[in-house]
Model the fold of this input.
Amino acid sequence: MDSAPAAYPVRVLRGDRIKNVTDPERGPVPLDNGASATGRKGSKSSRRGKKKRHGAPRDASAVAKASPLGAAEAAARPTGAEPAEPVRKRKRRRRSKSGEPGQAAQVQSRSVEPKASEPPKPEGERRHKRRARGGKKAQHARPLAPVHMPAPPTPASVRPKSGRPDGPQRPDRDAQEARAHHRDGEPVSDDLYAALDLGTNNCRLLIAQPTRPGQFRVVDAFSRIVRLGEGLGASGRLSDAAMERAVEALRVCAVKLKSRQIRRMRLIATEACRAAENGEEFLSRVTTQTGLNLEIINRETEARLAVSGCSSLVGRDARSVVLFDIGGGSSEIAVLRIGDNRSPRLANHITHWTSLPVGVVTLSERHGGRDVSPDIFEAMVSEVEGMLARFDCPSLDSVAVTDDFYLIGTSGTVTTLAGVHLDLPRYDRRRVDGLWLSNAEVSEMQARLLSWDFAGRAANPCIGPDRADLVLAGCAILEAIRRRWPSKRMRVADRGLREGLLTDMMADDGVWRRNRQRRQQMRRDGASRHP
Done:
């Protein structure tokens, strides 16, 4: 069906003013029935309406005699057609929709060019509309100039390298890493370092890039629960199922390491491979099937690495700290005394350390981790207390009540307590790492976990079914440490051996010294350019 032709309001040009007149089909139309008067119902008319209210209404014949344009419009309007929306309103709506780049020039050109079916309006009518809107004559009298929009940026996938217009294309990730070379005004080293920790319960990998002194940026990471030490306490050997789980996780790590240019890496194995009869045999299998060469570190090295990984969480006000790492097969404890001359390597302040041959996996297997009653929990605490009694360490009673002494815990046990304390819907490392917990808050969280059954612990998003049978064994080890070294507060560290490995490798290579030299050179260059 053919659409009806567009209807236009009847106007008469009289001098430099426009008069609305009687519609030949609808009858007389009030002169103040414009957009500004709609919905007022007796309110004061606007200044625009006052300007229009003079002169008498005219009929169609008067319109035809006064203006050929008015006669043509009256003849073109069909019977019963509603008046069309004013042109000015239509222009304004089009402008509001032109938000995308490249459309502004089209909208502006459309607003100044008349439609093919609409005759061009005389200059007097356009001038009258400008006065009615109250706009400036000089700005609205001229046609709008075309707007030159900036060209959209070239995608990084097709952008050539700097200085090589015909060179190979760089992926987006490389461009992001290149922009990170001056993050926060600090130059970033091009070197990548990797650290892998194969423990009794987890397999973890970190690939990082050094930034500011003592800090680095994580480029890639991997973590998976493999339970390599499952059944080790009873048999003294790594089971075939446990070794297969560990090899599968290590294959993923090998792919990540081979996909990047690593300057230096260190891959370690801890208590499970230390204690197992077939530990060396397993590592030979890992090398054959994944190409990774893992080394078994001793307990002292493990304790020092845990301290190095948490060095940034030891504040300048600390004078004595007990740092502990509750693992799957062993627990490392280091006592630090920090004087006025603080070393850049916090591990140099270790005065006493020990490694307990007990972890969350071994302790839960001996006492049962699914159904833990208060009596079973107290039995686990007593076993660990007996091990700590053989640790020859001077008493810290003189500093235990002061604010410059506290505990630092780096393990899944303390991070789980922190997540439950914060009531997180899912674990968030940014909120947990570095969190302070008072002595009362730690006791409250342990009591809450002890009151839950296995299903309740597994349903908590910060615990999950993989750790539901291990978390109370970790709490028992933590409780024994708190009884040996009472403290008013404890700090949570979501970091450990991998961070210690990365920190030591970067310090040995002097990457932070090179970054400092870059900063000094940048300052000298800036001073020479702007004397």
